[in-house]
Design brief:
By secondary structure, this protein is mainly β. Helices cover 15% and strands 37% of the residues. The strands form 5 sheets. Strands 13-14-15-16-17-18-19-20-21-22-23-24-25-26-27 form a 15-stranded antiparallel beta sheet, with no helix packed on it.
Length: 543
């Protein structure tokens, strides 16, 4: 067991900090005088997962679309975010899908108005949505929606032991119209429509579906009866429907490959996505747009042909839509891996398996109100690009504080967990021998600072270094060192008897360790900043 800190005495390259985070898939906290932001690296993107009381201050306020889809852009007017930076007013350019919200303190929609029509909503003490106007919604004992009205029809849902959607009755007749199965890792691997017996089988690589196959019964042979039993032999055909190719982010498909009868070459369709990873178009190999997509604020899809004419469903079987997640058109829900998501409700129909990473509401679609993504149905991340300048990362222009003061510098810390293994046996397996923790700090400056006099630049940098100083002072207190030591000792006990070929399959085993470190680091950060703000009169705003 080992834990160490990197003495930062100077301005350091932020990517060095971020790269440590990649290995552990953990968070880097970036803090300034009035906000705390959490960052992590997803492939080639610098990703911000806002967790401060002010939520995400990088929301997009306007999306301008030209050409055929000109009327399908949107604007968030003045006052479109409340004092907690939550979305309360959203306007479509063509006047369709205009929506306003009144929100409770924990982001329940107390009412919503769509194109002038108001819908009142009722929630219980657990923040379960129990009524939409006069229509009631019921739940099972574990907090999963059991029945709800959807597009005017009562839908019934059943859930498995792990709170995954097992079946859905979309017609309200009490018979399942679609069923789902999951593998031991919790990944959805098939979807079946019982009436036809046809199943769609998903082939997964990690958290991504890389291929779809149809599994179809073609013949049924009945042999002689044995008493009351008539044996049957069913023959199935397995046919490839689609392959998918991805870029660096988990929900960033770049191509869908559809096989054609031999000797024809397969058809290839290319995805076009926004910064939120919303798919807005499919194009063919010749560059022609063959299908277009638009969404309301919380992801309800509209599908069009290449010329902008509406379609009910995708002609190409494309299911990757809002934030790059898979849309199940037959039940009008999105599959967000850890759970389903209901764009019509603007929330999840079951509780967050990660509990409370975004706030005190287990059902809220936080990522929607903040314009972010939630690839695992557990916590929000929001994309914000950064550019590399002079060997370290600089955010091109940092936002202002709520008081209107520009933010010119950022102090950051990052931490990583490393699992140390012993010598492998003949099969490549080895025992875990140690769990190590490394903590690093850095300061990065806004691009605007370069045009300031040296005295001002040094003042801004010095201000951020004070943040780091107080953070490290709090981190190095004996009581906090003792707590970190105990966390790592417990991690080593948890992993002590484990044989493994690599460390990638240890994520679940280390989840409690990462949670404990994350909570302790947050407290250290808060305590360090509290003392800094108390003793430094300049901490109310940047110079």
């Amino acid at each position: 067991m080992r834990w160490s800190t990197d003495d930062h005495a100077e301005k350091k390259p932020l990517p060095e900090v971020v790269q440590n985070v990649v290995a552990a898939q953990e968070l880097v906290a970036v803090f300034c005088t009035e906000h705390v932001w959490y960052w992590k690296f997803c492939g080639s993107r610098f990703v911000c997962a806002a967790r401060s009381d002010r939520a995400n201050i990088f929301e997009k306020s306007i999306e301008t679309v030209t050409g055929i889809m000109t009327n399908w852009g949107f604007t968030i007017p003045a006052g479109g975010h409340d004092n907690e930076d939550r979305l309360v007013n959203w306007q479509r350019n063509n006047g369709i899908d205009n929506q306003q919200w009144n929100l409770s303190l924990v982001a329940d929609w107390t009412d919503t108005t769509i194109n002038g029509s108001q819908e009142l909503r009722t929630h219980d003490d657990a923040h379960e949505l129990t009524a939409r106007g006069a229509q009631t919604i019921t739940y099972d004992p574990k907090g999963n929606i059991a029945q709800q009205p959807h597009s005017g029809v009562a839908q019934n849902y059943t859930w498995d032991y792990d709170n995954k959607l097992a079946s859905a009755d979309t017609t309200g007749d009490g018979t399942a119209d679609v069923t789902y199965t999951f593998d031991a890792l919790g990944r959805r691997v098939s979807k079946t429509t019982p009436g036809s017996g046809i199943a769609i089988v998903y082939v997964c690589l990690g958290d991504q579906e890389i291929a779809e196959y149809s599994f179809t019964p073609v013949t049924t042979t009945t042999t002689g009866s044995v008493g009351a039993i008539t044996p049957k032999t069913v023959t199935y055909t397995l046919a490839l429907l689609r392959d998918y190719i991805y870029a660096s982010y988990v929900d960033e498909p770049i191509a869908m490959v559809v096989p054609n009868p031999q000797p024809l070459a397969p058809s290839i369709y290319y995805y076009h996505q926004t910064s939120q990873f919303n798919t807005v178009a499919l194009s063919d190999i010749n560059g022609n747009i063959v299908e277009r997509y638009a969404y309301d604020a919380y992801g309800k899809p509209h599908i069009f042909d290449g010329s902008g004419n509406p379609r009910v469903v995708s002609l190409y079987g494309n299911a990757y839509l809002y934030t790059g997640r898979r849309y199940d058109a037959e039940i009008q829900l999105y599959y967000f891996r850890g759970r389903m998501y209901d764009a019509e409700l603007g929330r999840f129909p079951n509780r967050d398996p990660a509990e409370y990473p975004d706030g005190y509401n287990l059902y809220a679609g936080y990522f929607g109100m903040w314009g972010g993504t939630d690839p695992w149905g557990e916590s929000t991340i929001t994309v914000h690009s950064a550019t590399k300048t002079k060997g370290y990362y600089q955010v091109p222009q940092l936002p202002n504080t709520p008081k209107g003061n520009p933010v010119y510098g950022q102090a950051a810390y990052g931490w990583k967990l490393e699992v140390q293994r012993g010598s492998p046996d003949k099969n490549g397996y080895s025992k875990i021998t140690a769990v190590n923790l490394t903590i690093e700090t850095a300061v990065t400056m806004d691009a605007r600072v370069e045009s300031m006099p040296n005295e001002e630049q040094n003042g801004i940098e010095g201000h951020e270094l004070k943040h780091i100083e107080k953070f490290e002072e709090e981190l190095n207190k004996p009581e906090n060192q003792e707590k970190l030591t105990k966390i790592l000792q417990q991690a080593e006990r948890d992993l002590g008897g484990l044989n493994t070929k690599n460390t990638y399959d240890l994520t679940g085993n280390l989840s409690n360790t990462k949670r404990d470190i994350r909570n302790l680091m947050k407290k250290i950060e808060q305590d360090g900043f509290k003392h800094f703000a108390k003793n430094d009169p300049s901490s109310t705003g940047h110079p």
